Amino acid sequence: MPKKLLCLITLSLLCCSLAQAQNPAKRRLRPSDVYRLQTISDVRVSPEGSWISYTLSSVDSVKNKRNSDLWMVSWDGQQTIQLTNSPDGESSGKWSPDGKYISFVSSRNGLTSSQIWLMDRRGGEGKQLTNLKSGDLNDYAWSPDGKKLVLVVKSPVDTSKSKDPKPYLLDRYQFKQDVEGYLQNRPVHLYLFDVASKNIDTLTTGNYEDSSPVWSPDGSTIAFVSNRTADPDMNSNTDIWTVEAKAKGVVRRITTWTGRDSQPVWSPDGKQIAYLQSTSKEDYIMYDQAILAVVSKDGGEPKLLSKTLDRPVASPRWTDEGNIMALVTDDRQRYISQFSVLTGKNTLVIGGNRSFGSIEKQKANNWVVTMSDPQMPSEIYALEKGVLRKLTKHHEELINSLDLATVEGFTSKSKDGTTVSNLLYRPSDAQSKQKLPTIFFIHGGPVSQDEYSFDLSRQMLASTGYAVVAVNYRGSNGRGLDYCKVISGDWGNKEVLDILGAADYLTQNGLADAENLGIGGWSYGGILTDYTIATDTRFKAASSGAGVAMISSMYGVDQYILQYEHELGSPWKNFDKYVALSYPFLKADKIKTPTQFMVGGSDFNVPAVGSEQMYQALRVLGIPTQLIVYPNQFHGITNPSFQKYRFEKYLEWFGKYLKK
């Protein structure tokens, strides 16, 4: 071989090696990646606008626990600093009004309850500020002058020193709640804490649960949310109230809507309060969408700024000019819009196929937001005159190493002619018209939706070669109130039509293999999995998480007593309706789909009995099935190793029955 040619070949091989080293092959997502994903929350802007603090929650795989620490990033994005790094965890970081300190909540140093700590922003260890002897700290907020804090404290449980637990003595209308367990009478009140003297004064009293305190700009008044009806368990009627920021201050009711009022925010001049009002004024509010409202600080008739928008609004924030920025949930996306208080006009600020999660004012027309898209988990961004600039990059290293599924939207028609919006996840190497084994992974709620945001579950399923479908069935909240509430009292009917309509569309268009379809989901997604496999036998495998199929057996067992009474009525009056909605269990002999059931052992939201009944029925009928119970887990599985295990079991079950 000529020497010159040999040199050229050698050089070419060297260049290829360098290119491969600089651009390593990307890999597929795997269950162990749950340990590498982090969560951003509590985003706050410093008073002068040059720094943004936030809580970053990450997983310690060795200790098998999630831990949260305080971080901050500069407005120009050039500096990212971790402020705390203790094994106890810190959260709810908030800037002192003078910008010199960051307060946070922690039970560090062996404390048996959470307290507020204070840290000099320039560095150094945090110092304990509060020393609450009893009760649980739920929330807090700084006064504008930095001299006081308003504390939200839940009354203590029985302080008996007996090592033996006492029986629960229950007399509440709603007597159980997921995570909290059995509900005793533990009112939640507001207290005034003096930072210098550490004295505490009581602001609110009574057998109520007060929350969401916000100070007026002049520091004289605190607005808060409370249900002060005769029996708050029996309705959803929260109102906006105010209390003078002093001991024995006068408490005044500001709103009178018999539905739900929440999230109060004072206007810059202190004359008005923006808040969210429910569309419905009924006792139980499930199928609803919040309306942006503004009311005088003295009460009166509110202005309903987004009533004609027919989309849910969240996180209202005042602009310097007296308008309101807010998040709007639309079809498969959440965008940022500005509302004129004078005219009610709504102007899009920024949208697109992505999902914004929070918004905070920096200064003038600049904002700090969190945002996620199908290829990137939520990060913090600067929003300058409608243009995004990324500030945090906690997920870039992981995401840049992964070969993620592509995500695209499509619409399908159900048997009754309804148009349904969906998302389709396909492995990146799939050909445009390749027919793939397909899993329909159904969202919970039902009042929520699948968006153009990063979805770990669907990406995980797609990573092993499946097409994965997210169906925004009727009941989802991005298509208007009528689309959302049409399923009230009629569960498992129209939603199943929508799922089957999406399946028909994909199989008829050659995108899904009709002989290799699977279905699964969690919570209402698990419930719809049960309804669907009892309706149609086309699915070759199913995974029902935290579901229920025998509705007639759940009255008084879960936390939804208001929903049962409101939508279905009492069983002794409307038992036929309960029986009709229990068809997946009562007609379990029609099910032919091998089905896996999963549930948290301590779930009071959709208790384990719902999954156990279906597992037992299929086991008796000889249909392949398995039951996985996660010990000491509530409705959401939070144990990191269990999260990893759940993905492994999903992939194992679908892999057993779906051919690739």
TrEMBL record:
List the InterPro entries hit by this protein, alphabetically: 6-blade_b-propeller_TolB-like, AB_hydrolase_fold, Pept_S9_AS, Peptidase_S9_cat, WD40
The protein's GO terms of the molecular function aspect are: aminopeptidase activity; serine-type endopeptidase activity
Q: Which SUPFAM superfamilies match?
A: alpha/beta-Hydrolases (SSF53474), DPP6 N-terminal domain-like (SSF82171)
Give the signal peptide range.
Answer: 1-21
Per the database record, which ranges form the Peptidase S9 prolyl oligopeptidase catalytic domain? 453-659
One of the GO BP terms on file: proteolysis
Q: What does the UniProt record say this protein does?
A: This enzyme catalyzes the hydrolysis of the N-terminal peptide bond of an N-acetylated peptide to generate an N-acetylated amino acid and a peptide with a free N-terminus. It preferentially cleaves off Ac-Ala, Ac-Met and Ac-Ser. Also, involved in the degradation of oxidized and glycated proteins.
| Name of protein | Acyl-peptide hydrolase
The taxonomic lineage of its organism, from the top, reads: Bacteria, Pseudomonadati, Bacteroidota, Cytophagia, Cytophagales
